[in-house]
UniProtKB/TrEMBL annotation:
<keyword id="KW-0472">Membrane</keyword>
<keyword id="KW-0813">Transport</keyword>
<dbReference type="InterPro" id="IPR005797">
    <property type="entry name" value="Cyt_b/b6_N"/>
</dbReference>
<feature type="transmembrane region" description="Helical">
    <location>
        <begin position="51"/>
        <end position="71"/>
    </location>
</feature>
<dbReference type="GO" id="GO:0008121">
    <property type="term" value="F:quinol-cytochrome-c reductase activity"/>
</dbReference>
<keyword id="KW-0349">Heme</keyword>
<feature type="domain" description="Cytochrome b/b6 N-terminal region profile">
    <location>
        <begin position="1"/>
        <end position="72"/>
    </location>
</feature>
<dbReference type="InterPro" id="IPR016174">
    <property type="entry name" value="Di-haem_cyt_TM"/>
</dbReference>
<dbReference type="GO" id="GO:0006122">
    <property type="term" value="P:mitochondrial electron transport, ubiquinol to cytochrome c"/>
</dbReference>
<dbReference type="GO" id="GO:0005743">
    <property type="term" value="C:mitochondrial inner membrane"/>
</dbReference>
<keyword id="KW-0408">Iron</keyword>
<keyword id="KW-1133">Transmembrane helix</keyword>
<feature type="transmembrane region" description="Helical">
    <location>
        <begin position="12"/>
        <end position="31"/>
    </location>
</feature>
<dbReference type="Pfam" id="PF00033">
    <property type="entry name" value="Cytochrome_B"/>
</dbReference>
<keyword id="KW-0812">Transmembrane</keyword>
<keyword id="KW-0999">Mitochondrion inner membrane</keyword>
<keyword id="KW-0496">Mitochondrion</keyword>
Length: 72
């Protein structure tokens, strides 16, 4: 048949893309790109924002999962 287990990776790609978009928008609301304050904004996200560490973790690992699903 035409449908196999490999078709699941297309759905996983869509899920990873949506996670990347949502977490990226959330992180962009709290991040400042100035060279003097960029690192402090990342530490602010991880320490002061509610579940900011989780959002950052999901965003970082979501990119890896996206490319793993893409290359499969």
């Amino acid at each position: 048949s035409n449908i196999s287990a490999w078709w699941n990776f297309g759905s996983l790609l869509g899920l990873c893309l949506m996670i990347q978009i949502l977490t990226g928008l959330f992180l962009a609301m709290h991040y400042t790109s100035d060279t003097a304050t960029a690192f402090s904004s990342v530490t602010h996200i991880c320490r002061d924002v509610n579940y900011g560490w989780l959002i950052r973790y999901l965003h970082a690992n979501g990119a890896s999962m996206f490319f793993i699903c893409l290359y499969m």
